[in-house]
Amino acid sequence: MLREILYHNTELPEIKRGLDAFAARHRAIATNLANVEVVGFERREVEFETRMRKAMGEGGEIAATHPQHFPQPRDPRDVVHYVDQIPLKDDEKTSNNVDIDTQVTQLATNQIQYSVTLKAARHLFQMVRKTRGMG
Known about the structure:
Elements: H1 2-9, H2 12-34, E1 44-47, H3 49-55, E2 82-85, H4 100-131
Antiparallel strand pairs: 1-2
C-alpha cells in the first residue's frame, strides 16, 4: 500500500529520475575532466531537463523527424536521461571539445540541482511519515 501511495500519488518517480540524471551527469563531467588533455576525446553530455519539461507539457510538442526515432514520453514518470557523445568539429580534430571552465561550472550547477532534488525527496518522505502517524 505504501508503495502504491509513493509511486502513484506523489512526485517520487520524477524525483528518482532527476537524481538518476544528476548522478549520470556527474559521471559524464568527471569523465570529461579526466580526459581534458586527451587528443580526439569527445565530451559527454546528459540530457534530461528538456525531456522532462516537454513531458510535463512545457516547451511545446515533441515531433519525431525520422520514423525510427524513439517515441517521446508523455508521462513525466516515463522520462529517462540519456548520455550523448558530442562529436568533434573539424577544427577540434587535433585537440578535443572539453572546456575545463565550462565543465567545472556545470559540475557546480549539477551538484546544486542534485542537492535541491534530494531535499525535495526528504521533504516528501517527511510528509508521508506525518500522514502515516510515524513522525
